[in-house]
Amino acid sequence: MSGTPALVLDNVRAWYGESLVLQGVDFQVLPGEAVTLLGRNGAGRTTTLRAILGLTGRRQGSIRVFGEETLGQPTYRIARHGIGYCPEERGIFASLSCEENLKLPPLFDNGSPGLSLDEIYQLFPNLAERRHSPGKALSGGEQQMLALARILRTGAKLLLLDEISEGLAPVIVDTLGEAIRALRSRGYTILLVEQNFHFAAALCDRLLFMEHGRIIETLTPVQLEDQADRVSRLLSV
User: Is the pTM of this model over 0.85?
Assistant: First the structure.
């Protein structure tokens, strides 16, 4: 992991209407890293992902993606720098089959080919079995796999994943964890928003704790045992 960072946020402030949500967020993610944003509900984690893509209101500061400043760009231009966003609501097309959903995303013109259907089905065997099923017939876990698989078709190399383990059965969470490990071995860079602390800690290089729209603590997985009491306080409701 070296060279130009995949993502840099420098004193990022973001608003929804008149409400200031992000109050000076600073962090970077190196190529091939996996980093998690943790915190209580309302801390600003999802807003951080949305601000990266220009999906909030007014933004200030600096957001650089693979070395290029993107703060003044529209969302469609930001995405074309190689960002894949998997939102909490998933957003699959319910009336289309699983495979039709996977055939929809365009390829980014960034020199990075997306995963083929065969590669997707190798990563998510459940989707291979359900390739002809409509999206509305998939289980919640299968829909989450499809939402993640769809952004892998575009050629994106920086993945923004919002609460992908929420409400899913442990066996599905394990499958998603194995998929993330496989993607990391392929060189993908991953920024996760998670409530499932143990899921995130097993996958990531660093854990960033947010509170009131700021990063207030950064820990590595090896530091967690010694900081268990502090982590509990940071995440308790």
Answer: yes
